[in-house]
Structures are given as structure tokens and as C-alpha cells.
Amino acid sequence: MSESRLMVPALADVQVEGLTRSAFLVRSTLAAGAVYGMGAITPFVGSAFGQKGDEGDIEILNFALTLEFLESEFYKRAIRDVKDLSGDVLDAAEQLLEDEDAHVTALETTIKDLGGKAVKAPAFNFGDSFKSAKDFLKTAVIFEDTGVSAYNGAAPSIKSKDVLGAAGSIVQVEGRHAALMRSFDGEQATVGAFDMALDQDAVLEAVQPFIKE
Amino acid sequence: MQEHRMASAPDAEQELARRLTEDAASRKNFLRMVGGVAGVGALAGFVAACGGEQTTTTPPPPADTAVSTEEEPEPEEISKGDIEILNYALTLEFLEAKFYADVIESGEITDKALAKTAKLFGDEEQEHVEVLIDTIKSAGGKPAKDPKGNFEEVIAGGPEMILTAAAVVENLGAAAYLGQATRIKSPEVLAAALSIHSVEARHAAALNTAAGFGFANGEPLQGSIPDGPFAVGMDMAAVLEAVAPYLPKKS
What we know:
heterodimer; A: mainly alpha; Ferritin; globular; disordered N terminus; B: mainly alpha; 10 helices; 0% strand
């Protein structure tokens, strides 16, 4: 068992979990990094590459897309169904819906550009989340915090620098969303000094209850 | 089946909330997890173990960039470039930590909720400082020195100027991490940087709101989410230029 160079106890929880199938891809990214150089941060992966994207990247993008579908549908229905949603919270829900929709479109475009097939939105069930603005905020905080951890967990496995740049660009916005929803819910903006990384299994487990079979 | 899932939703929420609030982040909690189980170690193991597989599934990398694909019990070295990025991040975290410390010491923030937030964010920046120092050391590098930021002018400007500066500094911090994400080579360093990046983003959003850049009177929310749906990173030169006013004047 080889040891990491980075035995920093404080980062033990920021582990890169679930790097199984894609783990070896990370390795070639290290080599590829030198070839591609440092691409500018761009949310969209141009078709300039003109080659098929990495399958692991496409899988990660599709996973992210499913989460964005979840968030988008959640805000859409909240705006329609939560009776006491008003003022700043309503404004925020509308803004966040717009952001999540933009993420959906960007991810779908990116997946197609890479030669992949974008997943369809599953059917969702948000339970009692829309009974009141308070219930809405509780679920919103969970979704946004989970979104942050999902992107943070997936990012180190991403092979393409452009896809990584896009994921970084989106996760920062998810972090801002999380902070806003937490403040409306009367909580501090952060969960701690470090955002946790969750692997796909943990994220799926968290959102599975909201996805209809 | 579906009903069962519906019924289980609140449990799952609670479980996740528990994980996110209890498992994450507090330094003490992290320290309790010391030991051979560190995930980053496991990652290095994976990466090394998969070396053989790589030769059968992907073309070998060009010779001059290649790390040998066989007989490689050693983990990847953390590159000089990564250590440089970590030191850059450390410099920014030093500035942020000093900013909050000076602001709190000045007593200028009299609003209780805001003072509490300043204390929390300041503590978190201090944790970033400590973790970055540890990370740089364990990667075999030499941590940068505290540049000893000077925030006298800002603090003299009173609460409004302090809040604005706080928002500016945090947004810079978030943009700085984002700007480096694709330059980082080690997945471990990347994971560490990302775990801080999104926290800087949370700070930035909260302070933008507190500074009145958004949410009030139905204003558009570009204050809290200034770049729209896609955040924009900044490169080192731009960030260093932006923080230059807070560095001690050279005599």
C-alpha cells in the first residue's frame, strides 16, 4: 500500500472517493496536462477538439446533468406550488431556476459536443418540500450543499481540462446558491471550513428518494 | 416501491443533513480521522495500482511526459507547479485571515450577526492557512511567509467600506482558486483546492448580500452570483494586482 505524499490530517475528509473505474484516467490526465497546457476557463467545451470525449468525462457530465435536472425541476415546481413563497426568497428561487437551467443546457451541449448522449430528466417526487417556504428552503439547502459536494467529488476524476474548468465554474455558483439558501433558512453560509467531497454513490443515495422509479 | 421511497424521503434528508453538518469540516473532526485510512492515501494507491491497466486501455503517453507505467510503487510527486499554486493560495488565505482578525480587533463591526459571521469566516480562513501550510510541507515544499496584509485604510473607512472590502476579497479568493483549478496536476491537491474554493464562494455570496449588492428591494441578484450561472476565474497576475493595495507599502 503506497502512501500519498499528502498526509494532511485536516484534509482526510476531502478525500477523493469512488475513484474506481475512472481512477486510471486521472493518471493519464497528469500526462495529458502537459500536452494540452492550461486551457482558459470556459464553461463550454468547444467542438474544436473534433474528437470523441472521454467516456468517464461523459459519464460524470451526465451525472451532473441529472443533478441539475433535479434542481431545475425543484425550483420550477416550488415557484408554482409553494403558497407562501414571496419577496427575496421567491426572487432567489427564480434566479436559481434560471441558473440551473443554464447549467442543464451547458451540460447537454457539452455532452453532445463530446460525442456522448445526454441523459433525459427522470421523474421527480419532492415529497412535502412544497408545503411551505420553510420546507422548500430545507430541501433547497440539501440540494445545493449536495450539488457542491457532488461536483467537488467528481472533479478530480475529470480528464479534460475544459470539462474540469466547466465543472469548477458551475460548482462555484452552486456554492453561492447554497450560501444564499442557507442564509434564508437562518443558517451560516458554510458547513465548515472545507466542503466535503461526495462520490456518486453517496450523492445518488441522497437524491434517490426524490427520484421516481 | 414508489410509496416506500416517498416515505423515506425525510429520513434521507435527515441522514444527508447529518452527514453534511456533522461529518464535514470541523478541524477537530478532521483530526480525529488521522490514521492510515486517509482517503488521499487510498487514492494514491488506486492510481498506482491502475498503472498496469493503463497500458492496455489507453495509448502510452508521449515519452517525455510519461511516468513509467510499470514497477511504480511510489506515488506521484507533487509538482513544483502545484506547490507554487498552493503557496499562492496560502498567500491569499493569509491576507484574508489577517483581514478578519484586524476587522474584529477594530471593533468596527457592531452588528451582532455580522460580527458572528466575521468571526466564523475568519476562523475558516485561518483553518485554510493551517491546512495549506501542512499540505505544502507534506508535499516537500516550503510554505510562503505571511505577507502581513495592511487593512488600516479600509477599517478607517468604517463598516460600509469594511463590508465592501470583505466582499471584494472573498470574490477574489473564489476567482483565484477557480483560475488555478485546471493548472493543478495532482488530483489530491485539486481535491484540496476545490474543497476550499466552494467555501470561498459561500463566503463571497454571503458578504455580497451583506454588503447590499443583491436581494434588497427585488434587485437582480448579480451581487451574490456576480458572474451569472458560470463563475469566471482569474489568473495569478490579475489577482495579485487586485490585492496589491492591501500589501504593506514597500519602504
